[in-house]
Specification:
- This protein has 198 residues and is an alpha/beta fold.
- The chain has a single domain, classed as 3-Layer(aba) Sandwich (Rossmann fold), CATH 3.40.50.300.
- The protein has 7 helices and 9 strands.
- The strands form 2 sheets. The protein has a 5-stranded parallel sheet with strand order 2-7-1-8-9, with helices on both faces. Strands 4-3-6-5 form a 4-stranded mixed sheet.
- Strand 5 and strand 6 form a beta hairpin.
- Helix 1 packs across helix 7 and helix 5 packs antiparallel against helix 6.
- It is globular, with a radius of gyration of 16 Å.
- It starts with 7 loop residues before the first strand and ends in an 8-residue tail after the last helix.
- It binds guanosine-5'-monophosphate.
- The site of guanosine-5'-monophosphate (5GP) has 13 residues, from strand 5 and strand 6.
Length: 198
């Protein structure tokens, strides 16, 4: 895939940092933004729909797509669970002259930035602290004891990559974090793509 004037917004963070709330807020605020639906091999949660939250596919299908070079990036985000950004998804959004918003993990975000250095805006959402992150994940109630611990360990590791991203927002107050993200995105939408990151 070539890098033309197509812009990309990446929202990345350790899980539980509030990045989903911030992403939703941005999607509601800016009609130019469209959520990039990833492929994933985990099963859908109760409130999730195929094609809207993820393309829920089998591991076999996922491997086939890797072979066919259909991903911009993919990662085994959690043990045995694969997630990836499809080239076809970005292409579809660009064809509608809109900007894809990728809610992806830190390693995936770094890979996308490397491939589209001039047209990607990345925002790293930092949780106020690891104990606060644990409290948030606990209260979400979607995790088992093991998956909670896995997410906490991963979060601590991911925090060490925060300097790889062009923007960092500390999410200790959701409203303020949303406002900050809004300002960053407003400038990005208004800027000519070719000068971004140059
Ligand atoms: P969840 O299972 O809670 O929906 O997502 C787990 C993690 O996977 C989140 O941090 C989410 O941002 C990340 N993720 C979702 N889609 C992708 C993707 O396409 N690529 C990568 N690298 N990570 C993703």
């Amino acid at each position: 895939m070539t890098e033309a004037n197509q812009k990309i917004v990446i929202i990345t963070a350790p899980s539980g940092s509030g990045k989903t709330s911030i992403t939703r807020h941005l999607l509601k605020t800016f009609h130019q933004l469209v959520f990039s639906v990833s492929a994933a091999t985990r099963s859908a949660r109760n409130n999730e729909q195929n094609g809207i939250d993820y393309y829920f596919i089998s591991e076999e299908d996922f491997q086939q797509k890797i072979q066919n070079d259909e991903f911009v990036e993919w990662e085994m985000v959690y043990e045995g669970k694969y997630y990836g950004t499809l080239k076809s998804e970005l292409r579809k959004i660009w064809e509608q002259e809109q900007i894809p918003v990728l809610d992806i993990d830190v390693k995936g975000a770094i890979h996308v930035q490397e491939q589209f250095p001039k047209t990607t805006l990345s925002i790293f959402i930092e949780p106020p602290s690891i104990p606060e992150l644990k409290r948030r994940l606990d209260s979400r109630g979607t995790e088992t004891t093991e998956s909670l611990q896995a997410r906490i360990n991963k979060a601590a590791y991911e925090l060490s990559f925060k300097y790889s991203f062009s923007n960092t927002i500390v999410n200790d107050n959701l409203h303020e974090a949303q406002q900050q993200a809004e300002r960053i995105i407003r400038d990005f939408i208004a800027s000519p793509a070719k000068t971004i990151g140059a």
